[in-house]
Each structure stands twice: as structure tokens, then as C-alpha cells.
Amino acid sequence: MIKVASIVGARPQFIKAGPVSRALRSQNMHEVLIHTGQHYDQGLSGAFFEELGIPSPEHNLGVGSGDHAAQTGAMLSALGPVLLTENPDVVLVYGDTNTTLAGALAASKLGFPLAHVESGLRSFERSMPEEVNRVVTDHLSSFLFCPSETAVTNLEDEGISAGVFLVGDVMKDVFLERLKLAKQSTHLLDEYGVGGGDYVVTTIHRAANTDDPARLQGVIGGLREVTAHDVPVIFPVHPRTRKAILRDGIHTGEVMVIEPLPYLSLLTLQSFARCVVTDSGGVQKEAYWAGVPCVTVRDSTEWTETLAMGWNRLVGAEARSIAEAVLECIAPSDRPELYGDGQAAPEIARLLRDNLTSE
Ligand code: UD1
What we know:
Number of strands: 13
Bound molecules: uridine-diphosphate-N-acetylglucosamine
Strand content: 5-15%
């Protein structure tokens, strides 16, 4: 039986791992799940395992927070002995976090083949930690599972063509599975006192926004300006953003600052929103699939197709630009399928099964 060691650690990876874990197991592969412990709060970690039906990890390395080098280094040294003991046929990593990079380095130093889910994405901004994580991981991978044609082209431009598979986005698998249920959970709107189509939901957590007081001030200022036009703003806040808001003494005014939400609840709020404001990659795509316009408070995005289709706008972190974009946002009439058909996970499992032989 083929043995796959899947390495996860941060919130978006738990979401992505759910459908892949199920597909691996249903296609008769033996999966060992390794949690680095990068995210450890119940609201960022435990809740997602329970909600998305992800099996409990066989190993939890409990690495926790730290500066990038210390965090990545601690994961790397903790992963080595676990991988040697498990001796998998392939190591599977997801996305672009420090967990992804540590998993990729650990696998390649020990000579295990590496598979990367969400391969080929580029923002072309090397100052983003995620960009460095993606580039290094792709260059070490034997299996590169891409969500879009653009991702395949990005890899080609870097001289990578072997082992590249266009499979679509595993986040779409989860999204399509859960959308109906999310749309039934309208009681959440009552809970926050909002009506369908009349509010904004926002998520902000990128280092570029939280570690720069001027940018964070601009983003929150933009959200406050939106509330001043009688448009409610719901803001489930990542712990790092909450700490930064306190550190910089930023006033959030009428913005509804709430705890991080489970996957399904955020999906409900996204799918009934008038507009989504975010610096997350996953949320930009979910907004598109839900047919809700998105305003992205970054200077670049890896999900360029959503811009090209007119559903997403890049506005940076200046208060006035954010407020204007939100108040003006309208849904374009056309919304072609993007990032696959929701069957990426079974395709990834099939490709691994067909291309690997167990020891
Ligand atoms: C990480 C990823 C980012 C991803 C995000 C999803 C990297 C470089 N970044 O960012 O790409 O979009 O996860 O959420 O890997 N903290 C807690 N509790 C936790 C985890 C973190 O309070 O359970 C706080 C700590 O103050 C910590 C800070 O958040 O120092 C940052 O956490 P970290 O894991 O380094 O990065 P994220 O911002 O979560």
C-alpha cells in the first residue's frame, strides 16, 4: 500500500487537507497526517479538524509561533525523525506557509519524493514570505499539482515541466461540498443584525498589513469609512491582527470585530455579503465562486484570473481607495468557471496512486 505523509500546520492547510485525506483513503492509500503545530489556537486549528472531518493527526510537533527562521527551523528539525520513522513513499505539502517550506526541505534532505498541492502560484513579490516558500517548494517537488493554467505557465517560465499536473483547486472541492449548507445557515445573519446583500465581511492577516502600522491604520480606516455610510462591516479577526490593533492603539469604531469563525460560518457570511474585503488568497477565490465582488487590500495577487474577470480589485491599503472600491462594487454579469470543477482531490489521489509504487 502506498504511504503518504501529509504535512499541515496552518488554517488554510486544514481546509485543503480535508478532501485530499478523504480521497487518499478512499483510493486505498495509507495516509499519515503530521501537524507541525504552527497554528495551535482552537479557533485556528482544532475547530477545523472537527468541522471538516479531518482525521486526528498521528503526529503533532507542537512547534507554535516564532520568527520565521526560528519557526521554520524548529519544524525542520522536528520533522526529520518523524519522516524517517514513517518512511513514506511521498511527502505531501500544501500552499505556501512556513509549514510548507519546512515540509519540503525535510523531505528533500531525506530523499523522499515531494508533492505540492497549489503549485505554481506567484505574486512576483519576493518580500512576501509566502512567495519564497512557494518558489522553493516548487523547485524541490516531483509532483506539482496546479490549480490554473497560469500556475502551469509560471512553472514553465521557471524551467519546470516534469511532474506538472493541472488538477484544479482543492479549495473548490470543499467550497462546492459546503455551499448549500452554508446558504441554509441564515440565522447567522440575524445574529449579527445584518441582511443578505447589505453588509461587508472582511479578513485581514497578512504580515505586510499587520506589521506595518501605517497600512493597518489605512485598512481599518477604510473599513470605518464604509460603516460611516451605514454599511455594516463584520471582521472575524486573526490573533496576529488583534495583537497588532492593540499594539498600534487603532480604533475600530463601528466595525464589528469578532473572534475567528469556523469554515462554514465564514462561508455563510461571505455568500450573503454585498462585498468581501480581504488580504487572504483563499477568500478571494471563495468570493468569486460565491458570486460576491471582492476588494483585495494588497498590491498583488496570485489569483489574477479573478481580477481579469472583473470580480476582484486590488486597492492597496489606503483608506479612501478601500472605501470607494467597497461602496462602488458591483457584480459583473459574467462568471466563468475558474480553478477546476471541484474534483481536484480525487484527481490528486489518482495521480499519486498511478505514479508511485510502494516500497
Ligand atoms: C500563516 C501563513 C500565511 C497564511 C496564514 C493563515 C506563513 C509565513 N504565513 O500566517 O501564509 O495565510 O497562516 O492563517 O506561514 N497566532 C496565535 N495563535 C495561533 C497561531 C498564530 O495567536 O494559533 C499569532 C501569534 O502571535 C503568531 C502570529 O499569530 O506569532 C502569526 O502566526 P504565524 O503562524 O507565524 O503566521 P500567520 O499570520 O498565521
